[in-house]
Each structure stands twice: as C-alpha cells, then as structure tokens.
Write a sequence for this structure.
C-alpha cells in the first residue's frame, strides 16, 4: 500500500491528485491538437472538483493559471490567456503596512479615545458633563466585554483620567453602574435579540408553508 506521505506532493491540493496526474500525462502528448483537446478536458475537470472557483472574479483565467502552475510552466498549449510569470509567483509578497493607531488600552479601542478627545474640545456645560458620565460608563461596559469576570471601578477611573489627560472631571458623587447590572442588561439584550430571530424564523417558515399549500391546491 502506498501512503500519502510517500507520494509526490500535490502542487495545488484543492484539485486533487487525479488532476495532477492528468496534467503530467498531457505533458507526454506529442500531437499539439490532441494535447489542446486533452487540456480543455483537464480545465473542465478542475472546475468540477473545485466549483467554488466560479465565485472568483475571472475564474476561467484563474483555472488556466493553475493549470500552468501544476505543470511547472512546462505545458505548451494554446491557452486563451498568457502564461503566468513563474518568477512573480515565486517572489514573496511585500509585507503589508499597517497604520499605527497607537491604541493606549485595547479594551476601549480607538473610537472611544477619539470621542474623549472631542469631548475635551467642547465648551463647558450640561451637555459636556452628561457626555463625560456616559463615556465613563461606556469604559466600564467595554472593559467587561474584554474581561467578563470582574473589574475594579478604581481601575476604570484611573484609565478615564489617563485617557482624558486629566482634562475631564467627574462629579464627586458619580458612581459607575455595578458589574452585575451591566452583565444582566447585556444578557437581556441578547435574549431579546434571540427571541426576535426565533419569531422571524417561525414567521418565515409559516409563510413558506402557506405559499406551498396554496400552490398545491391550484
């Protein structure tokens, strides 16, 4: 018995070993017309074993490119597309450059930091003070999404102080919502969402059944 580990590696595994063997056989066909005809059968086989390729933009071009790659660029055939560049494929892609967002605390993300910066720029007044309290509460909610076990309110106040660079002040009697209330509210929202989804699913199924019964009685 021949084990997979003892077989020749597949160049593009998603097409399977049989397609690779077909390509290898095509390389031995001397008559060009017969080779062209056989290669078109291979393209059909490649599509049949990997129909997801149809979802790729210009998938036929991609199939022909893969055909040449499997043949190690040795297949001389009348392709409707130019042969891909072997050197280009072997050249490793350049590393992606990611924008350095410099997020100070991961649980809060960049958006909350930007919101705090905007609030700092606002004129003093009731609206600004309301937003300050809402932001502080949101910090705790966001932290609990990252660490659902517990959170020390003093830690949230410390982060709030650091993120606002000490420029936003909370009232002395301000208190953060309790961890239990936040988690319970999140749980209720999840349950409500699941209930709505279940109702929508039942409604859709009921309408489909009515439509089917209506057509059967025609």
């Amino acid at each position: 018995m021949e084990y997979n580990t003892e077989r020749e590696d597949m160049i593009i595994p998603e097409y399977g070993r049989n397609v690779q063997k077909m390509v290898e056989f095509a390389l031995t066909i001397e008559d060009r017309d017969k080779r062209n005809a056989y290669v078109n059968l291979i393209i059909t086989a490649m599509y049949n074993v990997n129909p997801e390729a149809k979802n790729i933009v210009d998938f036929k071009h991609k199939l022909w490119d893969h055909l040449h790659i499997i043949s190690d660029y040795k297949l001389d055939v009348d392709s409707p597309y130019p042969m891909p560049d072997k050197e280009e494929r072997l050249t490793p892609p350049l590393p992606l450059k990611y924008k350095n967002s410099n997020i100070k605390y991961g649980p809060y993300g960049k958006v909350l930091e930007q919101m705090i910066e905007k609030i700092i720029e606002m004129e003093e007044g009731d609206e600004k003070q309301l937003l300050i309290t809402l932001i502080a509460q949101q910090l705790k909610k966001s932290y609990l999404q990252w660490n659902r076990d517990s959170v020390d309110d003093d830690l949230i106040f410390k982060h709030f102080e650091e993120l606002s660079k000490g420029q936003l002040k909370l009232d002395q009697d301000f208190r953060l919502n309790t961890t239990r209330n936040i988690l319970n509210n999140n749980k209720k929202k999840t349950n409500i969402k699941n209930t709505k989804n279940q109702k929508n699913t039942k409604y859709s199924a009921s309408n489909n059944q009515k439509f089917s019964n209506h057509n059967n009685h025609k």
Notes: The two ends are 60 Å apart (CA to CA).
